[in-house]
Amino acid sequence: MAASLKQDYAKILKAGANLVMISPDSLEDHRKYALTLLREELPYLYVSDGDLDIARRYGLIRKQEHPHGGFYYRSLWILNRDAMITYKSVPWEGNAQVEEYQKLFTLIDSEPGEWRATCGLREPEKLHAS
Amino acid sequence: MIAKPKAPGVGVKAPEFHLDTPDGRFSLHQLAAQHEKLILTTQDSYRYHPN
After folding, report:
1. Best of A28, A52, A58 to mutate (most B CBs within 10 Å, chain B)
2. Nearest-CA neighbor of A101 among A88, A112, A85, A86?
3. What is the mean pLDDT of residues A29-34?
4. How many Å apart are CA B30 and CA A118, to the nearest integer?
5. In what order do the strands lie in the sheet with A75-79?
6. pLDDT average, residue stretch A86-102
7. What is the pTM for the complete model shown?
8. Which residues of B are less than 8 Å from A117 in CB distance?
9. Helix extents (H) in A44-118
């Protein structure tokens, strides 16, 4: 999904919106991931939720570990200028379902996004191997 | 007994946190005020989900 959001970030900004990605990875690992797989840094805003505080307050902790590992739900939220939640999808399948990804762009009144598989690679494991 | 925080839903204020941007450090609510819409998306570690 990172590749899709990277290429479509300009559309998001053009629609007057902005994007914040949140994950438990450190900022350093986030950058390593982008440089390893996409050869450039990801342009959108990033927040490292290493202590899972945001995940807890947004109800994003899985009761059972994901089959691939991890306890953090993928999700999508849209806020208005008053920071009111106007849309919520938990779990969000925008990484795997084209329709879910494209719906994001409808919700922000943007031109359509162009979903693409980021990689399907397991290369990020190398980031943690050393 | 401490009650488990209830997940926020549509129509309520998003729980606050702070983030660094190229223009400085803002609260989520401050950042939201600067845009027509603010998208938040979450995912687990790339260690487990490299897509």
Report:
1. A58
2. A112
3. 88
4. 31
5. A45-48, A17-23, B37-42, A75-79, A85-89
6. 90
7. 0.87
8. 51
9. 53-57, 98-107
Q: Which CATH class is domain A2-127?
A: alpha beta
Candidates B41, B47, B49: best to mutate against A (most CBs of A within 10 A) is B41
Residue A127: pLDDT above 60?
Answer: no
Reading the block at residue A59, the tokens are 């109800």
**pLDDT of res. A104:** 95
ipTM value:
0.88
Are B41 and A19 a contacting pair at CB < 8 A? yes
- Three-state SS sequence of A81-120: CCCEEEEEECCCCCCCCHHHHHHHHHHCCCCCCCCCCCCC
| φ, ψ (nearest 5 deg) of residue B5 | -55, 135
DSSP A84: B
